[in-house]
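== Sequence entry ==
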Amino acid sequence: MAIGQHDIESPMDTSEARGETPRRSGFTWRALVIGLLLIPPNVYWVEQMEMMRYSAHPTTVSLFFNAVFILLALAALNALVAKASPRLALTQAELLMVYTMICIASCICGHDWIQVLMPIFSWSFWMATPENKWETLFNPDLPKWLTVQDLRILRGYYEGGDTMYRPEVLAAWWGPVTMWSLFIIALILVMLGLTIIVRRQWLEGEHLACPLVNLPVEISEPKPRLFTQSLFWAGFGLAAGLDTYNSIAFLYPAIPRIPIEHADMAGAFRARPWSAIGWFPRSFYPFVIGMGYLMPMDFLFSCWFFYLFWKAELILSTAVGWDKIPQFPFSNFQCFGAYALFAVSALWMARGYLRQVWLRILGAAGGLRERNEAMSYRGATIMALIGFVFLVVFSAFIGLRAWLGVVFFVIYFGLSVAITRMRAQFGAPVHDLHFTGPDQILTATLGTRIFPKQDLITFALYWWFNRAYRNHPMPHMMEAMRMQDRARARNRGLVQAILVATLVALVSSFWSFLHMYYDLGATAQGRMFSGESFPKLATWLVAPTGPNWYAASAIGVGFVFASFLQTMRLQYMWWPFHPLGFAISSNWEMNLVWMPLLIAWLLKTVIVKYGGHKTYQRCVPIFMGLILGQFVVGSILNIVSIILHVPSYMFWQ
């Protein structure tokens, strides 16, 4: 659905001219101050959970439970303020603006961003040995302005029992931290620009619902109807009760636990070719069942169906002997092809709209007038171009050839667009895309032999934001704009809020990591994901390879098969298979959620078939209760365990 002709530039195209109530902005000084005050403790909390304790992983699912819990606590406090002095209470738009800032900050410090970046500063220097020969193989070529190479400075970082608050330590880290921070800001600028450009087409032209905003919007309502419904409290009580009981059983092992967390079933498949099924966990996470119920039926069905489809593909390929081909059946490359189709088709469907946007940018007749945008289309385009050029130039200073830098970031932001579109349309609970970034795609399909040494070094340094895409910031930007629409607020100020949140999150993240690591020791307390990057770089350099035609063919197969699924879906209303279910179902995280999604599909099918749409709507509070019940109890248990320095029950992963 394209934007209509009445949206073409008109001097009277304002809400006031149409007689509507003028919108207020959620970006106010008090919302900004509250968000800034909450970001540092939130960052510390996330890093404690995900890296230092490895006890819960809020940023590995699309809906961050830490952000939802903070919003709930803030909304409860706001309700008390409203009773005492209504004028002092935050509006719904302000609450959602704070929530957006917390989400962006969680993305920055999350599992697939700075947590993977931190070891890249220094891992290869600390871990260099005569055996691996890193000292001569590539360490001299790593840029000093992006790394910390002094082993005297690094000893306290890796072994602990030291402090970061020494002039020589601060001086060693200051430069690289600043440069990587500028790089991250450039990534955010490009994402913001792209989000602003496509927002109106997706949210107003195609009416994408962004299902994941439903719970935050309900929580932030001035008088939340959700909390007055007995069905909500039934779902909340069930999930909260399960987690509370299991936490007690965790502390007292004599008490039997209720097995809702994942457990491997591969032991039942020991004979070939069935053993090729690999890791095959079952789980019963209530919050995932709740999220699944809110997803569209065809996408929900396709997620678990294609997960089993991939397992069947592994078994079949083993039965016919194709498993002797390394990495066969190249599932991540097939998924990349499906994502590529989705990115291309999303832009193709919006081509008429984008043409109007382009005319507006040029100031030509027939351009689309901005309406409730976070900034002008011209400003958004300039912002995105500045960020993109900075990224390419930054990469060129490392040694990446300019044309290759352009290709690299076109692939990266293409994946960003596809992930954001998927979240906006379906509310996918996970989208990790492990080991499917442009670095992996380029080196696998083209081979490593054609790339000079500095190209490969750049790929290794960029591993931190391409290892996986679970806490990708761009979908949260689109959902922030959808939430402001739901709160009938202007999007003006959203860019400033996101950029300020990014800056504060960067300072908080780097400070908290350095503080904790110099105190406790990085190797003893944290998962060092860079152990995956530099050995891979060494392999690229020592054993260069040619093009992998199997991997390249797999991308084509994924693109063609997803095109077939999309064509059938458009031609036949009854067609149940969605191409994006095919795209995300082979990812690592789907192992953990396929069974809860299957349960959600079964429940939703029965409810809709025998109760109709009205019964489906009446049951929504139950499933929101399942989400919030686990989020609240899980958050409280993690906070208490951090304060008391004791282990905690891990309700997720």
The CA atoms of residues 182 and 390 lie 9 Å apart. The longest strand covers residues 24-25.
